[in-house]
């Protein structure tokens, strides 16, 4: 049976942040322990986010929505400034872009081969127009579009090549540090699980096989582990997990009544950063912030060690954190701008003492 439900991540303020109008008391005291020189990277888009650094740290790739098209497309731009460059085809739902290890190619997922794409676009435009007319704000939903596949192209968008063609949703891909492998999420077996394949799309093998959603995988810098998010404990409430690259020694790294997602490895120190919010109080609005944990891999078992550190406590949503290749910068998606839209932000980063 195909997995076609809409997966609700309960991120009310990620894309509808109008209530986030002030910094929480004490935010400066928390953030200055880790972040300095905080500044906005993108603007002019309806929304922009999920950005990643090029291997030399000079450019970024990300997804964004413009005023004239209803779905995300993939863009690159230099960090030093410049005009964003469209990399994807300009049509379909696109997401989850990533630079290859040599910086010469870009990975992303796209549904532009949907045989009913025109109807899909028209339905979304109508829905957005109806929402605007009624003043309705839809809760953020992630659609597992069955026509989504993983593609690779040159950094200027040329030489597009399809890497997956199995029925169902294939997305959320990222290269390993050595560039030889891609970890990704697929619904090819009926629900979203993790898979590994060679960088050319060959030798696909399944990594997880649990009920519910497993997604957002990233391979550790040493190539031995994969971190990911899963709702196997409670539907639609995500926790952070790690599993060996061989599919062994799976471990839960968070365990609370909340949504924990978008984990990302520090490139050189034993730390993982992620997005989390407490959903234990049904009467309180959850706020999404960035969190940091230290880990060890003694005896071939990955364990969390020490306390969890809070990196942000801004009143807006802070989500999807990634480190620069040298670990000196942190980039994330946030609703901190004056118009409260989701945009990319960056800061200088320092590890806890």
Summarize the structure.
This protein is mainly beta and 353 residues long.
What does the model show?
The structure is a single chain. With 353 residues, the protein is mainly beta. It has a single domain (6-349), classed as Neuraminidase (6 Propeller). Helix content is 8%, strand content 42%. It has three helices and 26 strands. The chain has helices spanning 12-15, 27-31, 117-134, and strands at 6-7, 35-40, 47-53, 59-65, 73-78, 85-86, 94-99, 105-110, 142-143, 149-154, 161-162, 170-175, 181-186, 193-198, 205-206, 214-219, 225-234, 237-244, 251-252, 258-265, 271-278, 289-296, 303-310, 318-323, 329-334, 343-349. The chain has a four-stranded antiparallel sheet, with no helix packed on it. A four-stranded antiparallel sheet has the order 3-4-5-6, with no helix packed on it. β20 (258-265) and β21 (271-278) form a beta hairpin. The longest helix is centred in the middle third of the chain and has 18 residues, at 117-134. It is globular. The termini are far apart. Mean pLDDT is 91; it is low at 1-27.
């Amino acid at each position: 049976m195909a997995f076609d439900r809409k997966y609700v991540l309960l991120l009310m303020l990620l894309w509808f942040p109008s209530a986030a109008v002030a910094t929480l008391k004490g935010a400066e005291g928390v953030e200055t322990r880790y972040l300095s020189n905080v500044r906005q990277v993108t603007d002019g888009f309806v929304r922009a986010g999920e950005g990643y650094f090029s291997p030399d740290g000079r450019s970024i790739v990300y997804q964004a929505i413009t005023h004239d098209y209803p779905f995300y497309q993939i863009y690159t731009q230099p960090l030093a400034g410049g005009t964003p460059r469209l990399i994807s085809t300009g049509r379909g739902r696109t997401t989850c872009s990533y630079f290859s290890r040599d910086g010469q190619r870009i990975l992303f997922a796209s549904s532009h081969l949907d045989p009913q794409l025109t109807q899909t676009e028209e339905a979304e435009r109508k829905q957005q127009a109806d929402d605007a007319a009624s003043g309705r704000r839809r809760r953020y939903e992630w659609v597992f579009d069955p026509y989504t596949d993983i593609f690779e192209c040159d950094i200027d968008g040329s030489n597009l090549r399809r890497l997956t063609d199995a029925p169902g949703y294939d997305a959320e891909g990222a290269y390993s540090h050595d560039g030889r492998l891609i970890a990704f999420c697929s619904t090819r077996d009926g629900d979203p699980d993790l898979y590994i394949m060679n960088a050319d799309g060959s030798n696909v093998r399944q990594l997880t096989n649990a009920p519910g959603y497993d997604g957002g995988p990233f391979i550790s810098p040493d190539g031995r582990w994969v971190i990911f998010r899963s709702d196997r404990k409670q539907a639609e409430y995500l926790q952070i997990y790690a599993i060996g690259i061989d599919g062994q020694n799976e471990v839960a790294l968070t365990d609370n009544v909340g949504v924990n997602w978008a984990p990302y490895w520090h490139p050189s120190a034993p730390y993982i950063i992620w997005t989390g919010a407490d959903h234990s109080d049904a009467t309180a609005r959850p706020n999404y912030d960035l969190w940091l944990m230290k880990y060890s891999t003694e005896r071939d078992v990955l364990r969390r060690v020490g306390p969890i550190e809070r990196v942000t406590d801004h009143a807006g949503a802070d989500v999807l954190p990634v480190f620069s290749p040298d670990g000196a910068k942190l980039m994330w998606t946030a609703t901190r701008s004056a118009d409260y839209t989701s945009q990319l932000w960056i800061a200088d980063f320092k590890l806890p003492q």
